[in-house]
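Next comes a concrete protein, fold included:
___
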Amino acid sequence: MKRFLIALLSIFVLAGCASNTDKGKYIAKKSDLENTVFSGQIEEANQLIFNKGNLTIITNPTLNNIKPSTNPQKNTNEKSSENHYNNIKIRTAGNTYTITGSNGLELKLKKVGKRVISDLDGNEYSTERDLD
């Protein structure tokens, strides 16, 4: 029984070490964001669309808040938005992208998975293809 407990403890320690090293393995590359559409993982109506040096950010709070119990007659004050930024510049450092562009855009995103990025608020966005 004592050997079993030691083996079990060893497995947990090794699993913990493996998960800590996985976090640092995602390196941000400019090519990750070229001609790529990211959709919010929780709020799917939110999108980041990178296309030919431009970025479109779509948010739709109305669609994000629809639940089975939602009353369709209830009017919401939140409005959807679509913002376009031209001639964006992408800088990378480690797992972080810094995106600047027209209209004072400065956006920081982190690569947190093979297909997942997150913003500084913790919102995660995913794409259908593996990022480089």
